[in-house]
Amino acid sequence: MLGCCSRLICDGCDFANKLREFEESLEHTCPFCRLPTPKSQAEADLNANRKRRAKANDPVALREMSKTHYHKGDYKGALEYLMKAAELGDVGSHYLISDLYREGKGVEKDEKKELYHTEEAAIGGHPEARFFLAFYEARNERFDRAVKHWIIAANLGCGDSIQQ
């Protein structure tokens, strides 16, 4: 989600904008509204639009609010936003929750909860979650399942899976 207009754009559009800026030596701007991107986290935090969308239970805005809390070291606050976004079906939030359980930030390390949220993200189409599941299966010597996960992750656009 973009800090200026709180829009969600695809990676291809973001890449095309960065390429255009590089080729024409332009200042970095939002690919959607063409406003300059926030220079600092404090500037991005002032964005009332994101907060308004989070209050309206927009799962992407909730996930972005969680990142703000995470970067401040408030892992419990980040987890609250992520759990709410995950309940609303945001697969990116499931993957970030799995990271919190893996690292033990704001929660106790819990491999079962980590795996649950990783699987939910993978089922929802999150390529990195699928890639992680492949390593989990390989570590447990279920190589046939690991290969299937790597193939699915590669089809979802995870470049690291192609190398495996």
Low-confidence stretches: none
Task: Give the overall form.
Answer: globular
Radius of gyration: 18 Å
Overall mean confidence score, pLDDT? 84
Beta-strand content estimate: under 5%
- Give the tally of β-strands: 0
Class from helix and strand fractions: mainly alpha
In angstroms, what separates the terminal alpha carbons? 30 Å
Biggest sheet descriptor: none
Number of helices: 10
Oligomeric state: single chain
Helicity level, as a percent range? Answer: 55-70%
- What is the helix/strand order? HHHHHHHHHH
Polypeptide structure, described:
31% of the residues are buried. The protein has 164 residues and is mostly helical. It has 10 helices and no strands. Helix 4 runs antiparallel to helix 5 (75-87), helix 5 packs antiparallel against helix 6 and helix 8 (127-139) runs antiparallel to helix 9 (143-155).
